[in-house]
Amino acid sequence: MGEPGTKELLSLEELEGAVVGLRTGRKHILSILVENRPGVLTRVSGLFARRGFNIDTLVVGPTDDPRFSRITLTLDGAMHPIDQVTKQLHKLVEVLKIRDLEPEDTLARELAVFKIAADGVSRAEVMQIVEIFRAKTVDVTKRSIIVEVVGTQDKVDAFEKLVRPFGLIEMARTGEIAIARGRAET
Amino acid sequence: MECLKAEGVDVIFGYPGGANLPTYDAIYDSGIRHVLVRHEAGGGHAAEGYAKATGKVGVCFATSGPGATNIVTPLTDAMMDSVPVVFFTGQVRTDLLGTDGFQEADTFGITMPIVKHSFMITHPTEIPRIVHEAFHIARTGRPGPVLIDMPVDLTRVEIDYKPVTDVRLPGYQPTLEGNQKQIRLAAKALANAHRPVIYAGGGVINANASDELVALATADRFPVTCTLMGLGGFPAPHDQWLGMLGMHGTRAANYAMDEADLIVAVGARFDDRITGKLDEFAPRAKFVHIDVDPAEISKNVPAHIPIVGDAKNILARLADEYGKLEADPARLSAWWERIEDWRRRHPLSFQDSTDSEIKPQFMVQALYEATGGEAIVASDVGQHQMWTAQHFHFNAPRRWINSGGLGTMGFGLPAAIGAAIGNPEIPTILITGDASIQMNIQELGTIAEHGVPVKVFVMNNGYLGMVRQWQELFWDKRYSQVDMGSWPDFVKLADAYGIAGHRFADKATLVEDVRRVIAAPGPAFVDVRVTREENTYPMISPGAAARDMVG
């Protein structure tokens, strides 16, 4: 390809690799630092609705600096052009920083609580699964238990799949929060 | 008011009401001109017209509730066409917020998807900073509308105004510079292109980059086409000017895009009215895309060489870099032969009448001839808009005021008012349709009161012309709800407003008639009777490819 700054010409055939709406096909975790002001979450979620982007999970919480909040959201890269999503988000004045977190360099965690129908016979089996997942039993009644699981989305999914046959009464999940590994800021 | 003066605001378009009384009391002796419109939508469009004609930020005031909901259309219009306008809306008292109080509407919530940014005042001392931030956001980067919602109790408080000179918004840092390496790459691509086209949009006007566009185009013999919003960005007529592109563009422009090997898009967004069927749009071309908004790049069409930044500085540097390459202009000869052939075979034309009947295209040509092209031309939306875009040749930027993205009927009259007030140096004419004009006709009152010298020309065919055309072409001529009849009598209506009214129906005298109207001082309202069933051609049918243009 023609070196910049030289008169060597550039063949148009060499211009490749431009695509519209590249779908990566994997799950993406976006960590979005926003100003802590009323209406910011509406702006972000409204943007997703308007542009037809589906959010899988969305978590908002404070950061170490009270002026800012962090929105962590996960979405499916097979469905959405992630670069278009982040560019549109960047146009919001109150969005300060967006990181599309690389899965291997990211520590992601979700908290989930499960209420499972577990009487005498099945309880032991459920407890065994709880043990394997390093989950915690936080409430026990005669006919049910409540279990708390912390882990990646995949781990929580796996736990759900295993306990569902016992009778999953209800479940609540927070959605993932995430932070970049290592010294650098997310 | 001090904030507005510091921002250089010389005119406000607005309408008072209960929730902005303190603001209007401050206007009373502020020394800033206020134009009282007859409907808040008119105020919003007038502020847009002012901004488009001057390049300055337009200002519009409206009260709470219905005042605010009435500006939803101009807000959306300004968002779609990147027009810098700051809207100030009144709001109910802080203690009534959320109680469904009288004339309360959730303005902040309603307008959230249609603003570049918006603010809700929560404390009087924030007002100066927020006003300055609003103007900064509206004016810079990709321009757009900003809304400030002001609870009435917070605007009653006396505060000390201290100028805010340092607007710092950490989340808002538009890229303006343009990457040098990318610019060099683009220059090289241009130097190697054999069938290049420059495709310029409204961004060139917004960036005041017309001179730089001409400089790049004439750095070699690059053909240029503009979008509806970009007209005037490149001076027409011109040897290298192909005419407008898109659905009702010229064949030369659309065919050139179709066969191009390199397209340099500047401040344009590959709208569906431009591309037609996206899969078949410019199938042989590589794209250089210059835009100040990174989100536009590779949104609809892939950019092989994206350059984010201000068109003015990028085009100048691109022309400069291109010059250094000393490319051989002869490589474009075959391309120009092809283009000349299209031009020869497919000029913009129409079948003129054989009697005195005025064809709508003839009407636009008559207006062009009568003004010598020296006029600001506002339009509404529909057939008349397309015919004006085709047959009126815009030789300078900020002369063509129309609603492109949103396509807002009723935009024209108030926008013409704003343009005429913003630029009184040359005449402002409005070319509108008999349907569009009735959507904001109350603004004739504004024109009369302020003596705004807008000359209104209604292209009157008694139809919702563009809808009728589509029903004729795509719905078996089943004309459903498009015949507007002959109401009102526009001459009498003008008379009721105290505006000079005329009716012209003879093509032989039309140019002279128009000259007389334009030469007369003050406003005028002219009902021009044109052929009823005339179609706007050529046309790319919706969803078709450019090479399959009809008409």
Can you tell me about this structure?
The complex is a heterodimer of chains A (186) and B (551). In chain A, strands 5, 6, 7, 8 and 9 form a five-stranded antiparallel beta sheet that branches. In chain A, helix 3 runs antiparallel to helix 4 (153-167). In chain A, a hairpin with a 3-residue loop joins strand 6 and strand 7 (144-151). Chain A has helices spanning 40-50, 82-90, 120-132, 153-167; strands spanning 27-35, 57-62, 68-76, 95-101, 106-117, 136-140, 144-151, 168-173, 177-180. The longest helix of chain A is centred in the last third of the chain and has 15 residues, at 153-167. With 186 residues, chain A is of the alpha+beta class. Chain A has two domains: 19-101, ACT domain (Alpha-Beta Plaits); 107-180, ACT-like. Chain A, domain 2 (Alpha-Beta Plaits). In chain B, the strands form three sheets. Chain B has a six-stranded parallel beta sheet, sandwiched between helices. Chain B has a six-stranded parallel beta sheet with strand order 9-8-7-10-11-12, with helices on both faces. In chain B, 35% of the residues lie in helices and 16% in strands. Chain B folds into three domains: 2-155, Rossmann fold, CATH 3.40.50; 180-345, TPP-binding domain (Rossmann fold, 3-Layer(aba) Sandwich), CATH 3.40.50.1220; 360-529, 3-Layer(aba) Sandwich (Rossmann fold). Chain B has helices at 2-6, 21-28, 40-54, 66-69, 72-80, 107-110, 127-139, 180-192, 202-206, 210-217, 251-259, 272-275, 311-325, 333-345, 360-371, 383-391, 412-422, 444-450, 465-474, 490-496, 510-519; strands at residues 11-14, 33-36, 58-62, 85-91, 117-120, 146-151, 196-200, 224-226, 241-244, 262-266, 286-291, 305-308, 376-379, 400-401, 428-433, 454-460, 500-504, 524-529. The longest helix of chain B has 15 residues, at 40-54. Chain B starts with a helix and ends in a 22-residue tail after the last strand. Chain B is α/β, with parallel strands linked by helices. Chain B is globular, with a radius of gyration of 24 Å. The A-B interface holds A 2, 4-5, 7-12, 15-21, 34-35, 38-39, 42-43, 46-47, 50, 83-84, 87-88, 90-96 and B 108-109, 112-113, 116-117, 120, 137, 169-172, 180-181, 184-185, 188-189, 191-193, 261-262, 286-287, 293-295, 297-305, 324-326.
